[in-house]
Design brief:
It is a single chain. The chain has 174 residues and is mainly α. The chain has six helices and no strands.
């Protein structure tokens, strides 16, 4: 990332994520997972890539409020960035779809396990764990729909920008 236009694009993605996480929306219908996947694919610096999605989460959680399960929410986003690294050399609509679904599933499994483990809502039994995951299914549907929508919107917008404004593009890490 060398030009000011590229930094403006990064700031725009972060502002987009911040805004859409703060305005009223369906539960778990958020652009942050799509941003995390995008960062993993297009940010050459592997240490910088997690900053954008984690920055969005930290900034919005500072406003919305922090919670005991925060690590179980942030970890899936870090994993999604790493999945983006793996997606770099085989990026196409089908693999993007699969990686987006995989990221959604990982978020569902990890975040709800954190709710079960650290929350005081469910008994610490197999039945409690089952109830936790069962009651989270409606949120999972929203997450998958939101993750797919925003992932394809972000990647699609980037492709439009890349072909419309070639000097704005990032080089995919090889």
């Amino acid at each position: 990332m060398k030009t000011n236009k590229q930094y403006i694009f990064l700031v725009a993605i972060m502002a987009f994520g911040l805004l859409l996480r703060l305005i009223p929306h369906l539960p778990n219908f958020s652009p942050v997972l799509g941003v995390a996947l995008f960062a993993g694919v297009y940010f050459k610096n592997k240490w910088f890539a997690p900053i954008i999605p984690l920055g969005i989460l930290l900034a919005t959680d500072a406003y919305l409020g922090f919670y005991s399960e925060i690590a179980f929410v942030y970890i899936p986003f870090l994993i999604t960035v790493v999945l983006g690294f793996a997606l770099r050399k085989r990026l196409n609509p089908f693999t993007l779809f699969g990686f987006s679904i995989l990221s959604s599933v990982l978020f569902f499994i990890i975040s709800n396990f954190g709710t079960f483990l650290l929350g005081n809502i469910y008994p610490q039994t197999v039945a409690g764990l089952t109830e936790c995951y069962t009651l989270a299914i409606p949120f999972f549907r929203n997450a998958i729909l939101g993750d797919l929508f925003f992932t394809f919107a972000i990647f699609g917008f980037y492709e439009l920008v890349k072909y419309g404004l070639p000097k704005l593009t990032f080089k995919t890490a090889q």
